[in-house]
Design a protein that fits this description.
Oligomer: homodimer
Order of helices and strands of chain A: HHHHEEHH
Largest interface: A-B, 49 and 48 residues
Radius of gyration of chain A: 23 Å
CATH superfamily of the largest domain in chain A: Winged helix-like DNA-binding domain superfamily/Winged helix DNA-binding domain
Strand content of chain A: under 5%
CATH class of the largest domain in chain A: Mainly Alpha
Helix content of chain A: 55-70%
DNA sequence: CGATTGGTCAACCGATCGGTTGAATTACCT
DNA sequence: AGGTAATTCAACCGATCGGTTGACCAATCG
């Protein structure tokens, strides 16, 4: 009972966990430091002026988000940065960055056409309502 | 007093705001829908079964994070998705994704060397403690 | 003008968060 | 076996979060 088999969260909740985990500056700093190599809880806790328990909790959050994994080394539990998750984030972000770019391009095209002819009276970009109707 | 000039948050806090804003699935959904075009608060609130005030708050959070901007159109306040912020996130993520990759490459090199000679007795990756000493 | 539409402000509520302290657990070391 | 180092568990605390309801602007329409 001590180790539940982790019911494998669906990707949307996974994203929530990852973003939420990285919303805390201390947690981001821990991630940054782990890029230099694996580290134990005590090593990670040393630079901050909070209790070791607090850092342990932070690591737990990162672990639940899939950002770090841990192995066993005697009584130590070294933390290891998982790279895979960054791909997940990059994919999510890239999708919307690209969409925004496309929107810019479309707007540019409209402006160009407006410039070529005289002024059509609808310069406002389409709302989602209008988009649904198409 | 009603409109403070926004003291321009430093990049680290900015990252906290962005990640925190995107940690909520409703907010991510709003962002997704805004890629199809600008939309008003009421339009954005319509699909969800929460109050308009709640959605208004969500939009406020996205705005504070710099993810959306708003203009005026009569009594309407159309929301517009800001693309710039995604670059900030991508830059942050890419940095650590790359670092993780480098770490893999270094490990591969070590393993190769171990394979060429007989076995050097230190297969464990360096800890941050050790990294500091170098 | 008064009524209505679009949106926000204010106060409140239960849940979660980041932090604490104290006790328990686990594995090593004489 | 006893001691101690590394980590986690448990209970608690104040602050913030996501949500509600009700009142309050602000701008348009009759």
């Amino acid at each position: 009972m001590t180790s539940a088999p982790e019911p494998a969260p669906e990707p949307d909740e996974r994203l929530s966990l990852v973003f939420s985990a990285l919303a805390d500056p201390t947690r981001r700093d821990i991630v940054a430091r782990l890029t230099a190599g694996d580290a134990t809880v005590n090593e990670l806790a040393e630079p901050y002026d909070v209790s070791v328990q607090a850092v342990s909790k932070h690591i737990r959050v990162l672990e639940d988000a899939g950002l770090v994994s841990r192995s066993r080394d005697a009584q130590r539990r070294p933390c290891h940065l998982e790279a895979e998750v960054f791909d997940l984030m990059t994919k999510w972000i890239e999708r919307y960055r690209r969409a925004a770019e496309d929107r810019y391009r479309r707007l540019d095209a409209v402006l160009e056409r407006m410039d070529a002819q005289d002024g059509p009276p609808v310069p406002t970009p389409r709302t989602t309502k209008e988009a649904e109707a198409s």
